[in-house]
């Protein structure tokens, strides 16, 4: 069973900090409530918005794993699929997610190295210890957002692609083809979700089915634009004026000294 603890922001309010996706895997309801309360206390103290999901079973967490997850808080001792087993299965598909084991026995921490755990918390987890783990995750998420990184599901795994390497994104039914300087990746859509990840990284929707990296546009024609890979993508009439304005602004900022 999964519980979604996303808290909507007040109407019209925008927050500059990246949303941190946290998944708690805990079969004890009281322990789960305590962890969520500690996460919300961190959110209030730091101003960093958290999207928190709780799973009460390791198998459910593995089946529902979202590649956008920044932090997994996994109870080690659970019936069925325990935290270490769940961590190993998720790590096979997602090499980048931060995993922190939550346990009553510190001895389990040694076993965490096998699944690439970033740390462990001894129950009951102190706000200070949890805060330190979250600070590291927030710092990494901020670095990814600043550099521009796309994280998406691809097949049975996850890909993380630097924004600078992406030439364009092309919607294809329920998938998105990410064209990079090195070649394409086919990832799960929709395009609008990937566009949101790349917000502020110099991308523009020139057509309902295409998102282009402005730094890789080399020429604009009547109904298309040409990219550094010599690929041409359509520029639709409703998007053309705004696209030209965005491209002009991008070129002006790129040419500005300093």
Total number of helical segments?
7
- Fourth CATH level, the homologous superfamily of the largest domain: Response regulator
* Number of E-type strands: 16
Look at the helices and sheets and give the structural class: alpha/beta
> And the CATH topology of the largest domain?
Rossmann fold
Total domain units? 2
Query: Helix content range of the residues, please?
Result: 25-40%
Rg, alpha carbons: 21 Å
CATH top-level class of the largest domain: Alpha Beta
Q: Strand content of the residues, in percent?
A: 25-35%
Strand order of the largest sheet: 1-3-2-4-5-6
Query: Which term fits the overall shape?
Result: elongated
GO molecular function, one term: phosphorelay response regulator activity
Protein name: DNA-binding response regulator
Modified residues (4-aspartylphosphate): 75
Domain HTH LytTR-type: 150-249
């Amino acid at each position: 069973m999964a519980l979604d603890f996303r808290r909507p922001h007040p109407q019209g309010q925008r927050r500059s900090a990246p949303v941190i996706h946290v998944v708690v895997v805990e079969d004890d309801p009281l322990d789960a409530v305590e962890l969520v309360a500690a996460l919300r206390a961190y959110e209030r103290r730091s101003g960093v918005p958290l999207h928190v999901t709780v799973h009460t079973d390791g198998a459910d967490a593995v089946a529902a794993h979202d590649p956008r997850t920044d932090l997994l808080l996994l109870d080690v001792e659970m019936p069925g699929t325990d935290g270490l087993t769940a961590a190993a299965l998720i790590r096979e598909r997602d090499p980048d997610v931060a995993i922190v084991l939550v346990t009553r026995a510190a001895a389990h921490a040694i076993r965490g190295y096998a699944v690439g755990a970033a740390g462990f918390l001894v129950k009951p987890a102190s706000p200070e210890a949890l805060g330190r783990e979250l600070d590291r995750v927030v710092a990494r998420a901020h670095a990814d957002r600043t550099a521009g990184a796309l994280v998406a599901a691809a097949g049975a795994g996850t890909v993380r692609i630097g924004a600078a390497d992406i030439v364009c994104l092309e919607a294809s039914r329920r998938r998105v083809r990410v064209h990079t300087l090195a070649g394409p990746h086919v990832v799960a859509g929709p395009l609008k979700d990937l566009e949101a990840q790349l917000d502020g990284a110099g991308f523009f929707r020139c057509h309902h089915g295409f998102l282009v990296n402005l730094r890789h546009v080399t020429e604009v024609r009547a109904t298309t634009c040409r990219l550094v890979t010599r690929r041409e993508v359509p520029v639709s009439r409703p998007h053309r004026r705004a696209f030209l304005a965005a491209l002009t602004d991008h070129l002006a900022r790129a040419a500005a000294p300093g």
